[in-house]
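quick q for whoever's on today - can somebody do inverse folding on this one?? i tried earlier but teh output was garbage lol. tokens:
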């Protein structure tokens, strides 16, 4: 009369939800089981061959032959599921499900550590740049070897001032309409000369 079918009941142990401590520890799952069934290739990860080429997979495994490991929640940021509930995380990520992104040395000045296209990096605010958001941005630029020390603020070398270190300083003022063009250097009008444009030229 064909294959002898047996009705069996397997007890699958499920994870207990911490929010529901009274949840039953097991759920009975009835299904038709053929004791002579053959599965090729064989069921993996302790899966049970219940009918020809039909595997019953336990929690944490899936696929026609229970060949795939399943992590729930899924491993994030490119993490690999090694076994149920165990992820192998790529560099720069951590946590049980690789959901935590970490940048070596941290991100400074309000920068955010992100994981994008397999690369972990700092996403900086508009006023900062650099691998750790450590370098301030001065949109106006810092001239004459000045350095940007804070957003929009230049530190100028001796002899220069101004928002972009673009104004030369002459300790002694340039006279008779002369102009300070470099530290302690005056450019005189045609009729004057000298370090401060003090001397009038004789025509």
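ok took a stab at it. sequence:
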């Amino acid at each position: 009369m064909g294959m002898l079918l047996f009705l069996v009941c397997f007890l699958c142990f499920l994870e207990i939800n911490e929010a529901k401590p009274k949840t039953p520890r097991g759920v009975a799952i009835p299904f038709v089981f053929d004791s002579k069934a053959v599965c090729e290739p064989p069921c993996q990860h302790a899966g049970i061959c219940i009918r020809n080429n039909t595997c019953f997979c336990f929690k944490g495994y899936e696929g026609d032959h229970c060949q795939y490991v399943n992590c729930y929640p899924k491993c994030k940021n490119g993490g690999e599921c090694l076994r149920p509930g165990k992820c192998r995380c790529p560099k720069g990520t951590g946590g049980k499900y690789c959901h935590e992104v970490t940048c070596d040395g941290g991100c400074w000045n309000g920068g955010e550590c992100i994981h994008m296209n397999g690369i972990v990096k700092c996403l900086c605010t508009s006023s900062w740049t650099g691998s750790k958001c450590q370098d301030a941005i001065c949109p106006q630029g810092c001239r004459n070897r000045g350095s940007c020390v804070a957003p929009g603020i230049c530190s100028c070398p001796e002899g220069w001032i101004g928002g972009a270190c673009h104004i030369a300083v002459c300790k002694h003022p340039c006279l008779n309409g002369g102009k300070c063009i470099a530290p302690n250097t005056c450019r005189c009008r045609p009729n004057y000369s000298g370090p401060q444009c003090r001397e009038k030229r004789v025509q």
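fwiw The mean pLDDT is 83. also The first strand starts at residue 5 and ends at 13. so keep that in mind when u check it
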